[in-house]
């Protein structure tokens, strides 16, 4: 790995305490106990990338509360650099409560009123030495409200000036926006500024929503019938915006790579028995970033992401369960490798 910069990766956006159902398979209303973990898309990516071997830092906000202490203590134990994690007075650290009903029900409830990470501001971004990073990955939710939205635009400016590779995880959470269509309006304005965009089919379709009835707020995703038929147009529109590379996560079917002037490249996944899909996309991003920032080609980097995602869906939670490099190598070695 090229070590000319102090850090490999900066992740930016939300963090939370995640309370996962201890009663796997029970309906949400019958949950009797929860296990406490750490979560939030950029937080999960930071931990996943660090466990694989990247030198990673995070920019997120925490409140002056015990939940904030819980989150920061975990990150420090994981050796994620927390020098850029401000404690923002007058806010509360975020929380999420999650149910686990495999194979396809994973209800979740966000507690993000006055949450700290959405209060990241321009001064917090100014504290980041972007010249010391190879890459920065932004999450869509960080653009949902001010002051975080403006701070993220400023972070993009600073990353661009310092030659930092800019990645976007679309991270669509419908109920975090004033109107689900607002997600697409903001994302479409952002797309030309990113080198690499990562998202599920649902998230990519969401970037081009015009009909609010297409969105199922309860499940925080696009209803399945609306995906087919729109996804190809949405992919074409994203590539037409000037993005260098789009990676479409397709769950058990692996992922697809789209590059300017090239045909789609399909990258197979790793079949596993699913326990909990939450966090799979974040594990994917951590694995992809590890490969990409080590100079691997896109195919192998995506294959690495697929492997990390496959491992995490067999486990109970997100950040706390991210695989190590040795675990990924053992997993892929048993299944024919990453090529």
Tell me what the structure shows.
This protein is of the alpha/beta class. Residues 217-229 have low confidence and may be disordered. It has an eight-stranded mixed sheet, sandwiched between helices. The protein has a domain at 7-13 and 46-61 and 119-332: UDP-N-acetylmuramoyl-L-alanine:D-glutamate ligase, CATH 3.40.1190. 32% of the residues lie in helices and 19% in strands. The chain contains ten helices and 14 strands. The radius of gyration is 18 Å and the shape is globular. Helix 1 (41-52) crosses helix 8 (280-293) and helix 8 (280-293) packs antiparallel against helix 9.
Total number of beta strands: 14
Q: If you consult CATH, what is the topology of the domain at 7-13 and 46-61 and 119-332?
A: UDP-N-acetylmuramoyl-L-alanine:D-glutamate ligase
Q: Order of helices and strands, N to C?
A: EEEHEHEEHEHEHEHEEHEEEHHH
Helix coverage percent of residues?
Answer: 25-40%
Radius of gyration: 18 Å
So, CATH architecture of the domain at 7-13 and 46-61 and 119-332? 3-Layer(aba) Sandwich
Q: Which CATH class of the domain at 7-13 and 46-61 and 119-332 is shown?
A: Alpha Beta
Keywords:
four-stranded mixed β-sheet; single chain; alpha/beta; eight-stranded mixed β-sheet; UDP-N-acetylmuramoyl-L-alanine:D-glutamate ligase; 339 residues; globular
Set out the fold topology:
Blueprint: E1 7-12, E2 16-21, E3 34-39, H1 41-52, E4 56-59, H2 66-77, E5 94-98, E6 108-111, H3 122-126, E7 133-139, H4 148-161, E8 165-169, H5 180-190, E9 196-200, H6 201-206, E10 215-216, E11 221-222, H7 231-240, E12 245-249, E13 255-259, E14 265-267, H8 280-293, H9 298-312, H10 325-333
Parallel strand pairs: 1-4, 1-7, 2-5, 7-8, 8-9, 9-12
Antiparallel strand pairs: 2-3, 5-6, 10-11, 12-13, 13-14
Helix pairs in contact: 1-8, 8-9
């Amino acid at each position: 790995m090229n070590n000319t910069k102090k850090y490999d990766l900066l992740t930016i956006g939300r963090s939370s305490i995640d309370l996962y159902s201890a009663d796997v398979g029970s309906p949400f209303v019958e949950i009797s106990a929860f296990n406490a973990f750490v979560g939030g898309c950029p937080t999960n990516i930071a931990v996943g990338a660090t466990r694989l071997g990247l030198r990673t830092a995070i920019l997120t906000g925490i409140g002056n509360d015990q939940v904030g202490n819980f989150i920061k203590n975990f990150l420090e134990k994981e050796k994620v650099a927390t020098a850029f994690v401000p404690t923002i007075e007058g806010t509360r650290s975020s929380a999420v409560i999650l149910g686990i009903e495999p194979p396809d029900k994973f209800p979740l409830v966000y507690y993000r009123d006055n949450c700290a990470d959405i209060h990241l501001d321009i001064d917090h971004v100014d504290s980041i030495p972007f010249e010391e990073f190879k890459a920065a990955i932004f999450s869509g939710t960080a653009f949902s409200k001010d002051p975080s939205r403006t701070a993220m635009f400023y972070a993009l400016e600073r990353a661009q000036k310092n030659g930092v590779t800019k990645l976007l995880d679309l991270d669509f959470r419908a109920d975090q926006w004033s109107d689900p269509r607002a997600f697409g309006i903001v994302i479409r304005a952002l797309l030309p500024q990113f080198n690499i965009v990562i998202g599920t089919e649902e998230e990519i379709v969401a970037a081009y929503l015009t009909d609010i009835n297409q969105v199922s707020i309860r499940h925080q995703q696009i209803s399945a019938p609306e995906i087919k038929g729109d996804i190809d147009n949405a992919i074409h529109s994203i590539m037409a915006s000037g993005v260098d590379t789009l990676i479409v996560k397709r769950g058990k079917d692996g992922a697809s790579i789209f590059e300017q002037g090239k045909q789609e490249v399909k990258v197979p996944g790793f079949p596993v028995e699913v326990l909990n899909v939450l966090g799979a996309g974040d594990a994917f991003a951590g694995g992809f970033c590890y490969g990409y920032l080590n100079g691997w080609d896109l195919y192998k980097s995506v294959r690495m992401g697929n492997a990390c995602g496959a491992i995490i869906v067999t486990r109970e939670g997100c950040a706390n369960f991210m695989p190590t490099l040795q675990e990924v190598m053992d997993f892929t070695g048993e299944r024919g490798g990453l090529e």
